[in-house]
Amino acid sequence: METILEAKDVSKTFVIGDNNQQTILKSINMQMKKGEMVAVMGPSGSGKSTLLYNISGMDRVTSGSVRFNNREISSLSEKNLSNIRLNRMGFIFQDIYLLKNLSIFDNIVLSAYLAKNESRDKINQRALELMKKMGIAELANHDITQASGGQLQRVAICRALINQPDIVFGDEPTGALNSKAAADIMKILAEINEAGTTIMLVTHDVKIAAKTERVFYMLDGNIVGENQLGKYKESNNDSQIREEILSNWLRKMDF
Amino acid sequence: MLIKMLKKDYNRKKSITITLFFFIMLSALLVASGSNMIVELSNSLQTLFTKSNTPHFVQMHAGEINQSEIDAFTSENRHVKSQQTVEMINVGGSNLYLGDSSTPEVSSVMDHYFVRKNDSFDFLLDLESEVIEVDSGEIAVPIYNMQQNNLEIGDNVRVAGEDFEMKFTVVDFVRDAQMNPSIINSKRFVVNEEDFAMLQRNFGESEYLIEFLLTDLDQLTDFRNAYQSSNLPMAGPSVDFPLFQTLNGLTDGIVAVVVILVSLLLILLAILCIRFTLLAAMEEDYREIGIMKAIGIEQNAIKKLYLWKYVIIAAIASITGYLLSLFINPLFTGNIMLYLGTAEKSMLLSVIPILAVSLVFLIVVSYCMLVLRRFNKITVVKALRSGNIGDVQTRVTFLALSKNRLGNINIFLGVKDVFQRFKIYLLLFFVFLVCAFIMIVPINLLRTIQSPSFSTYMGIEQSDIRIDLQLSDDINQDFNNMLDYIENDRDVEQFSPMVTSLYEFINSDRNLEKMAIETGDYSIFSLKYLEGSPPLNENEIALSYLNSSELSKGIGDNLMLILDGDTREMVVSGIFQDVTNGGRTAKAMLPINEEAALWYEVSLNLKPGVSINEKMVEYSNAFYPAKVTDLEGYLTDTFGNTIDQLRLVTILAIMIALFIAVLITALFTRMLIAKDSQQIAVMKSIGFTLNDIRLQYATRTMSVLIIGIILGTIIANTIGEQLVSVFMSLMGASKIEFVIDPMLAYFLFPLLLMITVTITTLRSTASIKNTSIAEMRA
Ligand SMILES: Nc1ncnc2c1ncn2[C@@H]1O[C@H](COP(=O)(O)OP(=O)(O)OP(=O)(O)O)[C@@H](O)[C@H]1O
Ligand SMILES: [Mg+2]
């Protein structure tokens, strides 16, 4: 399998005030294969979100190299990075970051209109299909204030997928949802992954992480462990076992 | 906690605090300067009139006089305190050389009168406001000429005829309460008794000012009627004290009013800023306010905290503005000082500006209190739960992106945001509107005064050249010769002779009164009529605005004229504005009354391609001593001073407008970016580039600007025009229509504003670079 994302000796230092620096990522080495679905776990403040932003080009690394689709992106211009985000990457956040003054449908099609790869008719059609798949088709003309948190997170997923990205990053996408809604979202993500999209999730939830292929464990700015769970298949009916394996491992990792 | 909040508030809003400070300071400064100007103006006027002992009624007369008849009239009329007849020698422009100039003042529209020092009143003053006395060979020159010809003490003035020459040295400049303003086309030069006699011998014809001081100015109308129904000389216009006052104060009065108007607009902007910041601050502090209330801090204490902040800013700004005005005042009052002289520093002078500034302060503070009343609506529970005070409800479905076929997505988003959250953009909108207004009104006014058609507001038909013939013994002969000459001149396209004579009419008290009426063919050269139309048959008469209001005759009213002993019923056909000849004139098509003729004039248009200047020189020589003027020259000579002052105001207004536009745009954009940082971060996360987002912001300010400019222009051309008309009515011209230079008003200025605002927006949005989802987490 081809490598889609690779981080080598990545570090990130924040400058806070005049002589106060804080190194949040120390020396990160990791890689992801195309079509993989991985999770990043670790205690709060260990640097999970920072890792996600830095390897996705949303923030700039202090040192080290990040390769995406065999291209070094740590030194790309803002404009090129924007272009990659627009066409190749999708993002889902814990807080539902949608544009407040656009309707739900407009929020979804916005980035596709911006990318201008296809006609607007085609984009609209795909957006509708996506919304149907997520079970939110009837919300198209609604305000974002007229939908529940779970529904909005599905909107965010539709938006992340509209440009058919190679990879989707999720920073605790289910963090603000109840367990039923979280399970639904996870099911959708698994389906997307099944369809070929690479996915990287940051999560605290063992149930979520257990449905991924591989789990990284972060501590104090380093990846200190990795657990290969193997591809999850609903038909295998092994989620219970996977969760237990993972929990035991995490306990060992001092979680 | 209270102090912490204050400090936090300042740090968070340094720029808006500073802006607010600027607005209040600037308006305090202008209010102080403007009111200072008005007080100074009225003080100086008063001093000038007192020191010069200005007459209350003056009849100009060209021709012989019989002083004993005047004396008889004076001793009989109980209103007269004293009388004086001033003899003046009219030195034609072609005989007068000012400074080192080798060309005479032919093209000047002014009548240059040489006079002696007056005995009892109507004193001509020097720049120290002392009565002027000159020795033989010395001369005192009007301030008007000092400015126009850049004269200095020690320069020469030559009067030269064909076989005659006199040389004078300028020793002083004349402050002339009667003839100071450039709008009065007569100027007085003071010479010594001996030189006067010498001039008298060489320029035979004298003109006279028959001047009266009354015991009581309130009796002026009675007196004027008495004079006009007498048989005393009246071959010329009559003018009076109130007119001197108006004309002397006009130029600076207008400037003072504009200055105060601008300051009022600035107060309005300051108030809008306060509203904007206070509401934003309350929104941000909403939770904290709720918490403070929850822990039992009294509402009034919190309110006071906010109030104090603005009281302190307003107080410091007002005081600074006032102090600055002390330095700036000389700039504004320079013109007053020059023409009217300085007055004793009165109490009023220091008190009124302070009062005006205090008023600014009070307005600002009371407005704060008004806005702060919203505090009462904050309840603890609401504050802690929702965390905002009714953020503007947006109609999302309005202008849907996916239902819109056209164009650039960033421009679309920018426009959509403006329409959706227009309330937020109100401040910006209003500022742009005001900016457009204060740019366009002065330039329109300037263009209007500069345009040739402005003459029609002064009762002068619009023509290329005008020739005035003053009364002399063989005036009829001269006039007929002149008409023959013009009739045979193939360069002339059309011409129209007009004769102004005195006619008698029956006034409302059934008494006979006299009126100067101009007769001629009014279908040739056009004049703007306030109401109605020009007299086009023998029974019609048009009255000047002043005449019509004093006689209370409107369109369609009747006026009984006495013609050759018979009465003729005239119908008022139109009312026109006139600022010449004291403003009391009339026009009709009557048989010429040669005995009572006052002056003759001919208006004419040249064929296309004929040089006006060459024609003027030709006519000046041919018709000597008639006064030949072209309309443009007339306007620049008459309004030059006003135009200069107005140009200064215009440039100032444009600079203030641009400054405000830049300041508020920068401020507003920054605030908006801070407010919308999350939305910006979202857009960046899904692939919008920095330039995409900046384009959205530029579109927002630009849409607001365009709406602002359109509305500002409309308001400038309607309300602004009316406002200007009100001030111009002081001059006798009561309805001004703007002459609009579309290139400037509709293209160049808007473009200038747009470029400035766009650059400012783009510069202020550069900080978006640092906004990212990665920073969003707190
Ligand atoms: N922009 C920043 N400037 C300075 N410090 C930062 C910045 N972003 C993150 N940090 C710090 O880096 C550390 C790691 O933050 P990060 O959000 O990556 O943790 P996390 O593992 O995602 O935690 P959580 O599970 O709570 O989301 C924290 O101590 C945080 O304060
Ligand atoms: Mg995190």
Taken as a percent bin, the fraction of beta residues of chain A is 25-35%
From the N-terminal CA to the C-terminal CA of chain B, the straight-line distance is 22 Å
Unreliable sequence segments of chain A = none
First-last Cα distance of chain A: 31 Å
Tally of alpha and pi helices of chain A: 8
Series of secondary-structure elements of chain A, N-terminal to C-terminal = EEEHEEHEHHHEHEHEEH
- The rounded Rg of chain A comes to 18 Å
Mean pLDDT of chain A: 89
Number of E strands of chain A: 10
Approximate helicity band of chain B: 40-55%
- What does the average pLDDT of chain B come to? 83
Strand order of the largest sheet of chain A: 6-7-8-3-9-10
- What structural class should be given to the helix and strand makeup of chain A? alpha/beta
Tally of contiguous helical segments of chain B: 21
Quick one: CATH class of chain A?
Alpha Beta
| Strand element count of chain B | 20
What spatial order of strands do you see in the largest sheet of chain B?
A: 3-6-7-5-8-4-2-9-1-10
Radius of gyration of chain B: 33 Å
* CATH architectural group of chain A: 3-Layer(aba) Sandwich
Task: Please outline the helices and strands.
The complex is a heterodimer of chains A (255) and B (778).
Chain A: E1 3-15, E2 21-33, E3 37-41, H1 48-55, E4 63-68, E5 71-72, H2 78-88, E6 89-92, H3 104-115, H4 120-134, H5 149-161, E7 167-171, H6 179-194, E8 198-202, H7 206-209, E9 214-219, E10 222-228, H8 239-252
Helix pairs in contact in A: 3-4, 3-5, 4-5
Chain B: H1 2-12, H2 14-52, E1 57-62, H3 67-76, E2 80-91, E3 96-98, E4 111-115, E5 138-142, H4 143-148, E6 156-161, E7 164-174, E8 186-191, H5 193-202, E9 206-214, H6 220-228, E10 238-240, H7 241-284, H8 286-294, H9 299-340, H10 347-372, H11 380-386, H12 409-420, H13 422-450, E11 465-470, H14 475-487, E12 492-506, E13 512-520, E14 529-532, E15 540-544, H15 545-550, E16 558-563, E17 566-576, E18 586-588, E19 597-606, H16 612-622, E20 627-630, H17 631-675, H18 677-685, H19 690-728, H20 742-764, H21 773-776
Parallel strand pairs in B: 4-8, 5-7, 13-18, 15-17
Antiparallel strand pairs in B: 1-9, 1-10, 2-4, 2-9, 3-6, 5-8, 6-7, 11-19, 11-20, 12-13, 12-16, 12-19, 14-17, 15-18, 16-17
Helix pairs in contact in B: 2-7, 2-9, 2-10, 7-8, 7-9, 7-10, 7-13, 7-17, 8-11, 9-10, 12-13, 12-19, 13-17, 13-19, 13-20, 17-20, 19-20
